[in-house]
Specification:
The chain is α/β, with parallel strands linked by helices and 319 residues long. It is 30% helix and 20% strand. The chain folds into two domains: 202 residues, DHBP synthase (Alpha-Beta Complex), CATH 3.90.870.10; 88 residues, Threonylcarbamoyl-AMP synthase, C-terminal domain (Rossmann fold), CATH 3.40.50. Helix 10 runs parallel beside helix 11. Bound molecules: threonylcarbamoyladenylate and magnesium ion. Threonylcarbamoyladenylate binds next to strand 6, strand 7 and strand 11. Its EC number is 2.7.7.87. It comes from Flavobacterium zhoui. Pfam families: Sua5_C, Sua5_yciO_yrdC.
Length: 319
Amino acid sequence: MSIVSNSIPKAVALLNKDEIIGIPTETVYGLAGNIYSVKAIQNIFAMKQRPSFNPLIVHIKSVNDLSEIARDIPEKALLLAAAFWPGPLTLVLKKQPCISDLVTGGKDTVAVRVPNHTLTLALLDQLAYPLAAPSANPFGCISPTMAAHVARYFEEVLPMVLDGGACHRGIESTIIGFENGEPVLYRLGSLATEDIEAIVGSVKMITHDDLAPAAPGMFSRHYAPLTTTFLTTDVKEKLKTFPYQKIGVIVFQKGIDDPKIVQQEILSSTGNLAEAASQLYAALHRLDNCHLDCIIAERFPDVGLGKTINDRLKRATKK
Ligand code: TXA
Ligand code: MG
């Protein structure tokens, strides 16, 4: 029997028994559990095979619940929450003592957001606690944007995936932390940095490396398909000199004619970056299931969500 279901009462009952379930959000599906249950949190880390120092995002139902989770909240964090919640923005703030080290990976900060998905907001409304939820993929794999992706990853071990359809945004939330009250970008995501800067002025981009990533999830190989992937400004040129026979491509707007291409993913024929972002992971999932020799992806325009798409494509090329 399929683990995919749209029953909120069933989801509530499982979560109240310290179980974890897949939940939809507007960005990607999450593996959710009660933030106050040691059993649920340990289970999330085990199921994802995620290192314990890599902290989870806390999902709350409204900004009114923020003070239960975080303290000493900078003015600019409140401005961003007012502008973008519910929505694809995660804020890293000082944690309240009730938030356990298990959730924060031992840090004194906590990542928190209000997801913009009717089903998950309705679910949170019926729970007495927020939900910790990392993306519902095994560590290092492509994030899921459909209930079926989650079921494929976790069929054997997960009791339920709450089916909320295809994720509207399709790429993880943008993560913002604060240094002396000023915003710092930890992870590019579904909310363009230009939109954030329109509210709070310039945002500092932190540099990170694999040994001590500032947002510990920012290992350079992340969001990666199993198939070898290349990123290029000119797919046609790359194809000419390529030794591979069975190739999949990802392009922004225009398809390419070449007999070596067995699967082609055009992310937005109208050239809309938001549409392209929403299609990216589903395209990577499909290509990864085609037994290809390699995937060639076209570099996107380096503006708005194009920056986020290029970031994920760059990570997809790492082995
Ligand atoms: O869109 C999203 O954010 C999705 C949906 C399910 O909400 N969640 C998600 O979670 O992408 P995850 O666990 O895959 O990524 C969370 C990121 C990680 O890179 C983690 O290191 C970072 O958030 N993070 C969490 N707490 C942090 C903290 N206290 N300081 C810095 N980074 C933190
Ligand atoms: Mg993730």
